[in-house]
């Protein structure tokens, strides 16, 4: 069970990294620091967008318009962190203390 807990925690950490990469890349594209015409930048942008949009879109639909400020990644990070704490506290910790 310790391997499963470690694997799930690593997946969650990787997804958090992808969210941060998506946010930073969107800022860099918005301020013309990097150009989406670059093949590598476009590839990374398409990957991060495809990985994060399915979870960000429902949050954006619920939030009111804040005038160009998108706080949906922050809310998603809080939700993922709550999920990780809940899994570690209520699923993995009892199983590890029983020796499974």
Report the β-strand fraction as a percent range: under 5%
Gross morphology is: elongated
Largest sheet: none
Number of helices: 3
Terminus-to-terminus distance: 6 Å
Label the structural class: mainly alpha
Kindly state the percentage of residues in helix: over 70%
Helix and strand arrangement:
Blueprint (H helix, E strand, L loop, with lengths): L1 H29 L8 H24 L9 H27 L2
What does this structure look like?
Helices cover 80% and strands 0% of the residues. It has helices spanning 2-30, 39-62, 72-98. The chain is elongated and about 55 Å long. The mean pLDDT is 93.
Give keywords.
mainly alpha; 100 residues
Short overview:
The protein is mostly helical. It has helices at about 1-30, 40-60, 70-100.
